[in-house]
Amino acid sequence: MSQRSDAQANRARILEVARDLLAEDGDASLNSIAKAAGVGPGTLYRHFPNREALVLAVYRAEVQRLVDAAPELLDKEPPLVALRRWFERLAAQIRIKHGLGDALSAAAQDAVTNETYGPVIGAIELILRAGEKDGTIRPDLDPDDVLMMMSCVWRTPPGRAGQKQANRLLDLVLDSVRA
Question: Which of 108, 125, 155, 174 is 20 to 30 A from residue 89's alpha carbon, by CA?
Fold first, then answer.
């Protein structure tokens, strides 16, 4: 039983370290990730047989954290604030995904995008419906449309000027969904 929990802890640590290192440098080596995670290369390869498997696992874990954040945000914030914070997280996640994209084949990129699209739309719908219920968000919104409008936020350039532009765009989009 303790081996199982050790293996789970190793996997979680590898994913966390890989997320950070790959976000900084999409070319970070698997050996550097193993070393930074405090595990041997064999341990890393037992969990992730190749670079693509590791990158996909990092991305899936991050999307799951993002999806899980929607109800948590709604527990703490009014729906419009929750929507803004959730989309700020999504924009950051997509920027990381673009950094990881070079490590994935086109087929893997398409597959993981298709796999994660439904849960992302579900999280958006959850927040939109909460806003409808409290009267702060328009009732006629389609989550797919809102996601498309929000795509401008993560297409801004990096740096301070890009962040300012992203905030202005996010304000504009949120104004358009307000009841």
Answer: 108
> What domains does the chain contain, in order, with CATH numbers?
1-49 (1.10.10.60), 51-177 (1.10.357.10)
DSSP string, the chain: -HHHHHHHHHHHHHHHHHHHHHHH-TT--HHHHHHHHT--HHHHHHH-SSHHHHHHHHHHHHHHHHHHHHHHHHHHS-HHHHHHHHHHHHHHHHHHHHHHGGGS-HHHHHHHHHHHHHHHHHHHHHHHHHHHHHTSB-TT--HHHHHHHHTTGGGSPSSHHHHHHHHHHHHHHHHHHB-
Q: What whole-number distance in Å separates Cα of residue 137 and Cα of residue 129?
A: 8
pLDDT digits (tens, 9 = 90+) for 17-75: 998 888 777 778 999 999 999 999 999 999 999 988 998 898 889 899 999 999 999 99
* pLDDT tens profile 81-111: 999 999 999 988 776 665 566 666 777 778 8
The position carrying tokens 């992730």 is 48
